[in-house]
Amino acid sequence: MAFMLVVDIMRLASRMIRYTSAFFADLGRRPVLLLCLGILLAWLMAGVPFMRFGVPTGLWGDRTFLLLHGRLFLDWPHIFRTDAVGFPDRLDLLGFPFTDLTERVVQFLTTRLTGDVIVGANVYFVIIVAVNFAAAFCALRSFQIRPWWCLAGAFAFAFIPYFAERSTGHDYLAAYYAAPLAFLILPRIVTAVRNRSPTGMVKDPVTLACCMVIATSGIYYSFFSLLTWGFVGLALATQERDWRYLPAMALPAGVTLAVLVPILAFFVAVTPGDAGFPARTAADQPLYGFRISDVIIGLEPFGVARNALRDYMAIRGKTEGTDAWPGPVLSAFALLAALFGSLLLRRRGPGVRLAYGGLTPTLNAYLVFCMIYCAPFGLGLIFNLLIRPEIRAQNRIAPFFAFAALLVFFGLWQRVVLRLRSRFGRSIGGVTAAVALVVLVLVNSIGSFALFARQQHALQRQPAFATEMTSIRATLAVADSEGLRRILQLPMAAWPEAPTIRGFEPYNHLLPFVFSAPGSSRHWSYGGSRGSENLSHLQLLLKTADSPCALAELSAGYNFDAVLVDRRGYDATELAAWDSRLSAVGARLVSDDPLRRLYRLPKSDCSQPLLLSDRWLSAAAGGELEPLLDRGWYSPEAWGRWGRDKAQRILLPNRDLGSRGVVIDLRIMQLADKDGRIPRVEVRVNQTPITTISVARSMQPEEHRIVIPRMLLRQSGFTTIELRPEASVAASRVTPEDKRLLGLGLIAMRVAPSIQ
């Protein structure tokens, strides 16, 4: 009796295994249903059911920009430029090339449909998980991998460590669905070449769609897609001795560039007529927060960037992170596959047929390339020699590395499955292989378990988050009740890539606007674009803030009605000094919390001068001329300061220049070049050349007088004086260890009204 019971139980278990296998086999023949199931599992893994969509997963750092974009999307159609942020300039989102157009479209739709910045951002991330998963699933299917394996592979790809890292920092970089799409078209290209019809790909709608998405899904992913196609084309051409692979791979690359280049060109050349900005040129086109002229470091004659290797060494620990590797399991496997993968596949047993078996040596070589590229001092060093190391571009090959590792992994996994089936039988061996695959995938993705929910809980547990949100709400409430319309935010910073100020991130200046009501007419002034005229003017007023008229000019000249001081940018002494200055001009403290102080400025005029007239103002450290010196100067020395760059600028407040012309006396000195010649210096007033000056003898101070006619002076604001030497002279001619290139040496300046 007991024996029969055991037999029945074993038969029942066998039937359950058969029925379960039949069910899963039937589901595997329905790829759309399987894809939907996989997306649901991915959302469960990311913790979507446990999210509170009204709570952000992050608030500071680069996440601020994602929220900023969402807030601007609510002000449609003013999403490119708006004077609500950055007044008196305008926030210029055209400064960020929309090569990541597809991600922005997704966020635009989620934000507009939900009507909330935070909810829209959270829904955006939920969709990105699904899109990353779906792209990987479809790409794996294009290599004719089994449907259930495709689900497991897409799951592993969607939750590589790179995603967990980028979903808290560079938010658009977390949308790396371009990587599997770059691989999706490879089997089509190989088939077209082998069938001797490579030009047919141009008419293939799938290839065209993939290329268009890749070109509009981020400049880095576009670049790495082009790099992948080029590498695979060269590897296959070498492997099969068929050079038709090179022009075949050039076809999708050409389509991608045909879409990408006009997008970049549009944001380089086009400027709306009412933007208040000059037309862009390639030299000053911002690229992800950096201007190209800043990003591309000065190259020496043979193309090696000056000091770039030193800079790379200084921050190497920050530029290569573990997120470049595709998780513990795939990373270990990739190392083994790069060494033994091709050997194992050559020895595959009967029944092992790989649709992409011919690509295995190429994929193994690509894995080696990715590992060398990601490794310290590897091929990624190319980026750090030519581009500022902070960009950390080499890590962004991680999704391509991960997908190539998955392809090789599944190629070898077939051999594992056959070995298990031959040893334990078809049913038990298949179940064992399936369980092992699930375990490996979960181990590789464990770092992303309940990712979004954990991010929210971690943020809510931070006291700084509650303090920040309380401060923002209090500031906005008081600004509404006081009817404030134009608020200057301190400390001021040069944008878009503003350095930390005493541990304060200037990006935090954007948060009050992010959480303000859509359609608000309030203007927030966090500073200005680096090198802009308005930034220079505001900085001058703040440098001379001890003069009551300087702060009064904020109200009279720029129509500011409030000043918002962020405590984190100042120490106690500096905060007390600002409180004293603002109180001296009649400003009223209307809001005070642990993070911010809000002062309402009075409507008042001031008759005291900002500029001392008829006396010499020293350019040395702490001299009275120092606040008026704008861009183009080295640090002060005991006698004055040397000029740097192509132009040295001095600003003069127009309210002190009178109704007639102005006479300016300059006490200067210069260095002679190696031929004994002293460069001439062109003097421009508000961009208009008026004279040239130079000294008679090298390193001998001289005085020169410049007369500025009244017609060149503006009614309000500031007059800009530019000193443009025709050449810079090496300081090593006087001091051998000094490597600077020097322009004009300024000792002092005197301003007086013209007698004419």
Plain-language structure description:
There is one protein chain. With 756 residues, this protein is α+β, with helices and mostly antiparallel strands. Among the domains are: 49-176, no CATH class; 463-600, no CATH class; 617-753, Jelly Rolls (Sandwich). It is built from 26 helices and 20 strands. It has a 5-stranded mixed β-sheet with strand order 6-5-7-9-8, sandwiched between helices. Strands 10, 11, 13, 16 and 20 form a 5-stranded antiparallel β-sheet that branches. A 4-stranded antiparallel β-sheet has the order 12-17-14-15, with helices on one face. A hairpin with an 8-residue loop joins strand 1 and strand 2 (91-92). The relative contact order is 0.08. Residues 270-305, 312-320 and 347-355 have low confidence and may be disordered.
Keywords:
five-stranded mixed beta sheet; Jelly Rolls; alpha+beta
Compact summary:
This protein is an alpha+beta fold. The longest helix has 27 residues, at 2-28.
In whole angstroms, how far apart are the ends? Answer: 126 Å
Class by SSE composition? alpha+beta
* Rg, alpha carbons: 32 Å
Count of alpha/pi helices:
26
- Main pleated-sheet profile: 5 strands, mixed
| Shape category | globular
Count of DSSP strands = 20
Average pLDDT, to the nearest integer?
79
**What's the arrangement of strands in the largest beta sheet?**
6-5-7-9-8
Strand content: 5-15%
Unreliable stretches (pLDDT < 50, length at least 5) are 270-305, 312-320, 347-355
Q: Could you estimate the helical fraction of the residues in percent?
A: 40-55%
